[in-house]
Amino acid sequence: MATDQGPVVDSALLRSELVRLRKEKGLTQEQVARTLEWSPSKLIRVEGGKSSITRTDLQALLMTYDVTSESRQERLQTLARGARETPWWNKYRSLVSDGLLSLTGYTAGSSVIRQFHNALIPGLLQTSDYAQVITSDLANPTAQQMAIELRLERQRRLRERANPPRQYYLLDEAAIRRHVGVGEDPGIMPAQLKHIVDRVENEDRLVVRVIPFRAGYHQGVYGPFVLLEFEGELSDVLYLEGRPGTAATITGEDPQVAEYRDIFERMLEAALPADRTVELIRQVAEELEG
């Protein structure tokens, strides 16, 4: 049975362990390929995530690396099966960028989500009505509906995981005060804010905090970002949001990952405590209703 982390994370975990096992044996890719009578490019594709690996080929690799434990072999075979599965988000491939699809895949298998937004409510917290407003500039009604469905399906799939990720959202006060949807239905934004409060009060793995205007300047003014952590030895992933075509997914040991981790922690120091945040969100919802 495959894991519930999704094929992107299963693949990344498998590749990370295969590379580590090879290096622990002091072998190069060329030496392993020669031993198995593979072309060097085959192993390069497997380790680089450009090609899936069959059960037979994975077993041959594990024997080459002297992995004899049946439980360890089966764990890696389980990751390989998961990596070969078709991602549920493939149906949205024609709609969104490769970067957003990559973020969706990594988020699906994450253990911790940290996200900051300076202007909008993050997609994983949005109601369908709120999402409808902020996707209204898409080319046609079908594309807009798919964009909304993607947001809601991401939320649902995270809730359905056996061990859902812990989620920490940090918002600038502007994100909760902007009266999104006022021209269509003034009740959309108050309902969105109440939805956040309801989720925070009913989900023990969800924390939302707001950086108030009175905190002044903070490093989040330069733009929204997402930081993801994972079980196992997979490195954190950083996603820098931007206009279409400008977003970036950063993985591995890139120094920007650690830099943004530190930025998030520093911004938390300027944020209201969780209980005061809930009070503020309630207050703003009442103001927008009035």
TrEMBL record:
Membrane spanning stretches: none
GO molecular function: DNA binding
Domain of life where this protein originates: Bacteria
Domain HTH cro/C1-type stretches: 18-72
Gene3D superfamilies (UniProt xref): lambda repressor-like DNA-binding domains
SUPFAM superfamilies: lambda repressor-like DNA-binding domains
InterPro entries xref list: Cro/C1-type_HTH (IPR001387), DUF5753 (IPR043917), Lambda_DNA-bd_dom_sf (IPR010982)
Listed name of the protein: XRE family transcriptional regulator
Gene source species: Actinomadura logoneensis
